[in-house]
Amino acid sequence: MQDTLQDIPFNLYKQAEPLVAKILENTHLTVDSPNDVRHIVIDFSGSNYRFLAGQSAGILPPGLDALGKPNKLRLYSIASSAAGEHYGPQTLALCVKRVVYTIPETGEERKGVCSNFLCDLKPGDSVSMTGPAGKSFLLPQIPDANLIMIATGTGIAPFRGFLHQRYKEPPQKTGESWLFFGIQHRADFLYEEELCDYKSEDSYHLVTAISREEKTADGRKMYVQDRIAENAHALIELMEKPNTYLYMCGLRGMETGIIDALDKACQTTGKNWQALLQQMTTENRWHVEVY
């Protein structure tokens, strides 16, 4: 049973006194892809750290920045349910993409400090962790809620935790689960086997958009907002129900396109999108985490 709102774990460990945890796994989620994405399992046994699906863990990369100050804390969405990974409840997983980019003016290659630190860790290595953080991107307290989950890239992390809790832990009555997942290449289909396994559940709908390999009817690249548009009427009908909650996680650029798709769907059916959005926001049924 999920903790009540009053019992949400929050900042049990802070930067001044972080939790020193251990790496159990660091495995590739992508093969034959230009993107290096890892599934990193962390063991925090012996501590009082705990978390809920949808929260984030803070990671403190070692070393100093260009100004001689300690590297800044980075937050990563936890990719596990509160039951943890298969090792037990005192473990959690992060889904981390190695960030490497080029400065246009100089051609110099730069590496993301924390992502590269995490991607290079090996089993047995230590990692300083804070948190958990976040109180808003959590599953609703009602077991029969309808979930609309929209992700791009590593934004799939919290939804892995949601679905694990909904379908892998002791069965409970559930509403519908719609997962829209936008990726660049088929090789970037993170957690493909897990996500496809849920198709045996009548309440589960998985919709993918592979932008570099699929085209829309008018020849454009297929993005997640295009898949939203294809299913928008069904989604709008679902969103009008008081037990439907929408979650969006991934790149910041996705938000505008998704809202536009839902707005257009409302226009074609004579419904008021702004009123629906306001209602969902007021009722705490609209949740967005973009970066």
Record the SSE blueprint.
Elements: E1 19-28, E2 37-43, E3 56-60, E4 74-77, E5 91-97, E6 100-102, E7 109-111, H1 113-119, E8 126-133, E9 146-152, H2 157-168, E10 177-183, H3 192-197, E11 204-210, H4 224-230, H5 232-239, E12 244-250, H6 254-269, H7 273-282, E13 286-290
Parallel strand pairs: 9-10, 9-12, 10-11, 12-13
Antiparallel strand pairs: 1-2, 1-8, 2-5, 3-4, 3-8, 6-7
Helix pairs in contact: 4-6, 5-6
- Tell me the helix content: 10-25%
**What shape does the CA trace take?**
globular
Structural class call reads: alpha/beta
Q: How far from one another are the termini?
A: 30 Å
Overall mean pLDDT stands at: 93
Could you say how many structural domains there are in total? 2
Q: What CATH architecture of the largest domain do you see?
A: 3-Layer(aba) Sandwich
Unreliable stretches covering 5 or more consecutive residues: none
Largest pleated sheet:
6 strands, antiparallel
**Over all CA atoms, what is the radius of gyration?**
19 Å
Q: How many alpha or pi helices? A: 7
Strand content: 25-35%
CATH superfamily assignment of the largest domain?
Answer: Nucleotide-binding domain of ferredoxin-NADP reductase (FNR) module
Strand elements, count: 13
Order of helices and strands: EEEEEEEHEEHEHEHHEHHE
- What order do the strands of the largest sheet run in, or round the barrel if closed? 4-3-8-1-2-5
CATH topology title of the largest domain: Rossmann fold
CATH classification class of the largest domain:
Alpha Beta
